[in-house]
Amino acid sequence: MRPRFKPAATAMLGICLTVIGLQSCDDSSRPWGSGGGPGGPGIETARKRASTKKSAKFTGGGAGGGGAAAESRDKEVFQILRGWPGASTREQNLIVARFRADRGLQPALVRIIELESRYLVPAIEIAGRLGLEDAVQFLHLIVLNGKPKPKAAAMIALDRMDPWSNQRLSEFLGELDEEVLVAALGLCKRRAEPPVGPMIRLLGDGRHRVRLAAYDAMPEECNDEAAQHQLLELTKSETTPIAMVAVQALGDFADFPGKERRLAELVGANRMTVRLAAEDALGKLGRRMSNNAINALHGRLLDPKTAILEKLECLKAIERTKSINADWLFRETKHLHPTVRMHVARCLVLAGHPGGVEILIEGLSVRKTPEISGEDVDYILAGSRAILAELLGRDVGDDPAAWRKQLPALRRARPKRIRFQPWKVH
After folding, report:
1. Whole-model pTM?
2. How confident is the model at residue 320, as a pLDDT?
């Protein structure tokens, strides 16, 4: 197929570092180095040129040159850019191909970027996909001084031409604006080894979009001990969405010291949403799950205060260990809700325990009670019958007696997997 807390002084330091980085970093830390582009003027030259032209009217001349002919080109480019934002991927690819084929349109595109005119963001995005060297110096100026959306687009465009270093990405991740942060995190996602520490900090950001982008960009491994500690601390956050996304990230990372222990602790957390995230994360450990973690799941499963949804999540995690204590599971779960028992049966069948088939046949006799709703009854009947039919290879109906006649064949079944998964439909 899947939050930030930071003092204002630290955030301001990030902005200062961004400015200092563009003025003083060496050639390896930004696209095209200090020259602004192959054979082009430097950043200071571009700054002076741009400052004298900010008020210029976009009508030919400038980078386009050529009077009436250039003005006609300018209007043509504006017309093309007007349709860029709502265009499909295929349509955008065709627009880029048009600019690539007709080089006479490119100077007008550069001039829009130089003067920060209308349709600036579409012009930046197309220039980045074209790799327009003439636009590089102006893109750097936008990264340095531009408004959030053009700046984010310019960061991405320049990265296409020459990827930013991790140092510069870290500086971008220290800024305050949401557009810039989401763009920087998107660039991190393209890296095999991005700056994990600053990314983990953003899991603690108060804005959902930033947290989601940070989670989505996380690599598979976190070998930085300071970042590991920071992530473990974030799971303790009193802000539920922050704690949840931190737990999800913890579950996705490759194992490191303290990871499983913390997840097992969170199975006992006060907030159900955090517990669910921890149970799902433990399930991802599979065969690597320790007995302590399995015992934590057992305890939550048997707790009478645990909701059915969470019990199913615990069973799902236990099943993924491939080492189910079938006798214990059959004996200790007899008092649970029939919906949960149906999933217990699924686990027992996969473990080769005969009690699984018995529970499924019993499920066909479930009737509505104050504790079992009509919806539950329909779900249990359908689920039990579906699993039995999968084991037998055919469906013999709703009558429990008809299925009991098939007990020898049902007990001989040794499926490696069962397609029907109750937790996905309940």
Report:
1. 0.76
2. 92
